[in-house]
Amino acid sequence: MANEYIATLSNRIFIKSEIDSPAVNSMAGSAIAPVTSFQVTSQRKQLFRHDKTGFRSESPVMGPQRELIEFTLDSYGTGWEGGSSKPAIAPILESGLCHSASLGTAFTVQSSSGTSITLQQDAPLTIGLGLAFGSEIRFVESVSGPRDFTLNAPFSILLSAGVQLDGCANLAPGDQTNTMAILDSWAPDQAIQRFMSGAISDQLKISVNNEFLEIFSKGFARNLYDSVSGAGGAEFQFPNPPSGSSPLTSAPIAGHLGQAFIGVPAARLCTLTQAEVKIENNIEPRTDEFGCFSTKAFVLGRRKVSLSLTVFERNDELSQALYTKAVNNEPVPVMLQMGNQPGSMFAVYLPAVLFPVPFFKDDQPRLLWQFRNAVAMGLQNDEVFIAMR
Predict the structure, then answer these.
(1) 53: how many CB neighbours lie within 10 A of its CB?
(2) Cα 364 to the center of its chain, rounded Å
(3) According to CATH, where is 2.40.30 located in the chain?
(4) Which end of the chain is less congested by CB atoms within 10 angstroms, N or C?
(5) What angle do CA 255, 258, 260 make, to 5 degrees?
(6) What gap in Å lies between CA 387 and CA 80, rounded to an integer?
(7) Per-residue pLDDT for 248 more than 80?
């Protein structure tokens, strides 16, 4: 029926990695991403003539102008069911971390003692590799041999000989731009559809202890097309949504269930009320070069990974040790796991975090500590690791 309003509930967002699937203007194989909000702005550098005309009227110059395309995206966090397909949110995380996700395999344990594990066979072990057992995820803290490694924290259940450690979808920081294509699809077909290519996350935030695990992405894109204006030229074919996709293939992870480990040795923290992991790439878009009307490339700046925490203080050794580390400016490892069911787990590991002296928030019945913008240290792309299972 004509003359109808466009309902926002009819919106679907498809996202694919342009590194994994470089086919231009094709969204085949992409899945519906669990996006809750998607905003795009095109900042055009409008030029005006300043001739002496005797009048006060503005005289803008028509035709192509330089423009900078920016986007913000809010999404739920989802887990990984295993297999050869990446999680639906993988392109968002890959773009923010500037590195492609790797899909792990299962390992069989030969022996274990606390955090020390020995496998039955040689395995491609790396620091920051995520491994799952039951409802828990842990990360490889150090590797001493092709079969021997140490976890950042012990599993709740002692690992006996013959048990299997499940592989995770793993992410670590990288140094290459990892762009994504985003299709903003609306119903009915007469509604304006949008397609964004060459999109990269400049900022990535992971928020903990909300109703659901929430991921925020903000960045730039090289091109923005639509289905009605003819942008892109006569040779451009606007991509169609992939057929047979279902919005229920990836369930959001509960943001208030999970585990938090902090300190050396790692101790389980039960007083966490809020946490946010923030990754900033400090990207510089190439938009001011001669002959360019749109962004042709992106230059990665110095990466900054930070962590903000709010916890209740307790009269225990963990609180005293954390405060002492903050005062002495000594690094502390932190691991946060959201979700507690296989297939719906998401974990973040920061091996070395420099906490500031906490801000005491005493306007509630219980004393709160707020650690703001604690810096995650790193040498060679090892500030933060993410694992999904």
Answers:
(1) 9
(2) 32
(3) 105-167
(4) N
(5) 110
(6) 9
(7) no
CB 216 within 8 A of CB 205: yes
User: Tokens standing for 112?
Assistant: 């274990």
Which residues sit opposite 111 in a β-bridge?
118
- Furthest-apart CA pair in the chain: how many Å? 90
**Burial of 66 by CB count in 10 Å (0-12 exposed, 13-18 middle, 19+ buried)?**
middle
Amino acid at 364: Q
d(CA 327, CA 316) in angstroms, rounded, equals 17
Q: What is the mean pLDDT of residues 345-352?
A: 97
Centroid of chain to Cα 120: 33
Is the backbone peptide bond immediately before 188 cis, with ω within 30 degrees of 0?
yes
Residue 245 pLDDT > 90: no
| Residues 6-62 pLDDT 10s | 888 889 999 999 998 888 778 887 888 999 999 999 888 778 888 888 888 888 887
More confident residue, 319 or 232: 319
3-state secondary structure of 177: coil
Rounded Cα distance between 73 and 179, Å, is 14
The CA radius of gyration of the chain, in Å to the nearest whole number, is: 24
Query: How many CB atoms within 10 Å of residue 118?
Result: 16
Got the DSSP string for 324-380? HHHHHT-EEEEEEEEEEETTEEEEEEEEEEEPPPPEEE-SSSS-EEEEEEEEEP-SS
Q: How close are the terminal C-alpha atoms of the chain, in Å?
A: 44
Q: Which CATH number fits domain 105-167: 2.115.10, 1.10.357, 2.40.30, 2.40.128?
A: 2.40.30
| Backbone conformation region of residue 46, classed left if phi is above 0, alpha if psi is from -120 to 50, else beta | beta
Q: Is pTM, for the whole model, over 0.70?
A: yes
Side chain identity at residue 213, one-letter code: L
Written as six digits, the tokens of 150 are 């140490």
Q: Which CA distances in Å does 193 have to 162, 244, 343?
A: 53, 19, 32
| Neighbour tally for 106: CB within 10 Å | 12
